[in-house]
């Protein structure tokens, strides 16, 4: 079990800059991605998995928030398919490099990135990888946990930063 403060404080810390930096029509998406980012990051660090109970409901929630923002639905679907496909290929080629939850999370993240800009897809992949290497890997190593390094926090950081830059 995760204590509520482990999620409440970081979520509030991300919602504050979201309200200041996100364009008004993108604000619900920024708040959603921040909340998902905190929740899934805490779970990923603690349990080394991204549960279906959170990743699968993210699909319609992100879709609804993108609709609210006035995003092009075809662009969102294309971005989701591209990002999902790329992450699935990595998972199939090197199963130890990426978990199944990361692959499932890649679709809503890809939808967000593509809705902001086509350039946000490769930029998001770079940001996600950088966050995983620079921030997540040392934290995971300090906890001396067996298994791979969580990539979900990097994916969600990239999506959140992209939404903040949407204006």
From TrEMBL:
Assigned keywords, A-Z: Hydrolase, Membrane, Transmembrane, Transmembrane helix
Domain Prepilin type IV endopeptidase peptidase as annotated: residue spans: 32-134
Residues spanning the membrane: 26-43, 50-70, 76-94, 106-136
InterPro entries: Peptidase_A24A_bac, Prepilin_IV_endopep_pep, Prepilin_peptidase/N-MTase
Protein known as: Prepilin peptidase
Family indicated by similarity: Belongs to the peptidase A24 family.
Enzyme Commission number(s) from the entry: 3.4.23.43
GO terms for MF: aspartic-type endopeptidase activity
Domain of life, source organism: Bacteria
Pfam family, one: Peptidase_A24
């Amino acid at each position: 079990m995760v204590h509520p403060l482990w999620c409440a404080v970081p979520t509030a810390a991300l919602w504050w800059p979201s309200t200041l930096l996100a364009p008004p029509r993108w604000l619900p998406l920024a708040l959603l991605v921040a909340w998902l980012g905190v929740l899934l990051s805490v779970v990923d660090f603690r349990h080394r998995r991204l549960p279906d109970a959170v990743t699968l409901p993210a699909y319609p929630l992100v879709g609804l928030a993108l609709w609210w923002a006035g995003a092009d639905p075809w662009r969102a679907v294309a971005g989701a398919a591209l990002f999902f496909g790329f992450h699935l290929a990595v998972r199939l080629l090197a199963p130890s490099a990426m978990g199944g939850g990361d692959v499932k999370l890649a679709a809503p993240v890809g939808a967000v990135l593509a809705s902001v800009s086509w350039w946000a897809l490769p930029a998001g992949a770079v940001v996600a990888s950088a966050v995983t290497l620079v921030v997540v890997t040392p934290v995971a190593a300090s906890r001396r946990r067996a298994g791979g390094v969580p990539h979900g926090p990097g994916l969600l950081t990239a999506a959140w930063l992209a939404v903040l830059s949407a204006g």
